[in-house]
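Duplicate of earlier report; Replication initiation protein, RepL2 input re-posted below.
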Amino acid sequence: MSNADKHENLRLLEKTAGMSANQRLVVMLYALHPTDRSGAVLETAANLAKLVGMAAPVFSRTRKQVIEAGWLEETERIGHIKYYRLEPKRLGQNVVVPLRRAT
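Output:
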């Protein structure tokens, strides 16, 4: 992990200071877990819950709270499984591509 990555993770921890420990854990899990090209974590809630030692219902309830707080957004749905990514705006990423004038 590079120093830039470490600083980004510390900044994320600072931004989530008002959240519960479980909510912060879910945010950090999505921040650190491998993603696809769109930034989505392609893992089921049950597997993610197991990874952090949380009961699946607690993980799902906590993730719902994090979604409602605007930290996660749904990226795709395959069957009944929903996949999420961190909200780029929360990470301070510029998600708008500036328009260029046609010549």
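The longest strand covers residues 72-78.

Merging into the original ticket.
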